[in-house]
Amino acid sequence: MEPAARTALLIIGGAEDKHGRVTILRRFVRLAGGRKASLVIVPTASSIQEEAVEVYSGLFHRLGVTDVATVNPGSRLEADDPELVAALDRATGVFMTGGNQLKLSQYLVGTPLGEAIARAHQRGAVVAGTSAGASIMSQFMISLGDEGVTPRQRTSQLTAGLGLLPDVIVDQHFDQRSRYGRLLSLVASSPNLLGMGIDEDTAVEVSDGRHLTVLGSGAVLVVDARHAITDAHEARRDAPLLVSGAVVHALPAGATFDLHTATLTDFAEQHPDSPAAPKTVASKQAAEAAGGRRKQVTATVRD
């Protein structure tokens, strides 16, 4: 029996850099096989699909990829097209653009194309999505919701997603559009789900459905309300929600996190303009321990 393939998701908070170092998109190409990658762009969510395809295909070509195709069903019926399914079955990387995530849900979830994306993920192709393409990754997707800091009852809605990242709710443009309140309200009413809010020009790389690494210029907020106290079961519509005891993890680039245990596993500070080597949590702890030993030796000598 062959071992299961390593899986990878690249979930982007939107507005990723396309003109400078293109760190996030460069990582997508590398995960997909570099110059040998076979990429498929899915612009279905976008209201400017031709422009989206032009921008991303041009960028991937500049990064050395020659094999770039487009899969763009115009309806749920077209998501049955065997040629479109075959294109996804050949891909080593799938990239879903931003736009309207509810459209993605209506056109892809539960169709042969949606199943082909899931197969691609399971066999080891990297599946990436930005903005709406990020939201659709989860099993339960935010399809609408009020913005703001205060969580309120029944002001947000969940819809079925592709299920590539179970037990997590993904939100995007997180800091820029002040979406903390809606994410907190959703995990308050579904405390078995982790909430993940991703800033613009920021991404999480999820390996094997569990190990999360943050990259980009912003941060990722992970909200764990599994042991929180809330009145979500009885609060009136639009009322501010009680949410007490939720654990919030703010993760900048260089942080690694275990989604199964909801714990930080390491942190390497990212200072790209500094020649100094990044300091990890482990190295800091070792340095602190060494410093403590030096202090003890010094104190002994003085005595």
Multimerization state: single chain
- The helix/strand class is alpha/beta
Estimate the mean pLDDT confidence.
Answer: 91
Strand content: 25-35%
Instruction: Note the main sheet.
Output: 9 strands, mixed
Order of helices and strands: EHEHEHEHHEHEEEHEEEEEEEEEH
Q: What is the CA-atom radius of gyration, in angstroms?
A: 21 Å
Would you identify the regions where 5 or more consecutive residues have pLDDT less than 50?
A: 293-303
Number of strands: 17
Shape: globular
Distance between the termini: 65 Å
The strands making up the biggest β-sheet line up spatially as 3-2-4-5-1-10-11-16-17
Amount of helix: 25-40%
Number of helices: 8
Question: Short description, anyone?
Answer:
The protein is an alpha/beta fold. 29% of the residues lie in helices and 27% in strands.
What does this protein look like?
The model is unreliable at 293-303 (pLDDT under 50). It is built from 8 helices and 17 strands. The chain is an alpha/beta fold and 303 residues long. The strands form 4 sheets. The protein has a 9-stranded mixed beta sheet, with helices on both faces. It has a 4-stranded mixed beta sheet with strand order 8-9-12-15. The protein has helices at 23-32, 49-62, 82-90, 101-108, 112-122, 132-135, 180-189, 281-302, and strands at residues 8-12, 38-42, 67-70, 93-96, 126-130, 140-145, 156-160, 168-172, 194-198, 202-207, 211-216, 219-224, 229-230, 243-244, 247-252, 255-258, 263-267. Strand 16 and strand 17 form a beta hairpin. It is globular. Helix 3 (82-90) packs parallel to helix 5. It starts with 7 loop residues before the first strand and ends with a helix.
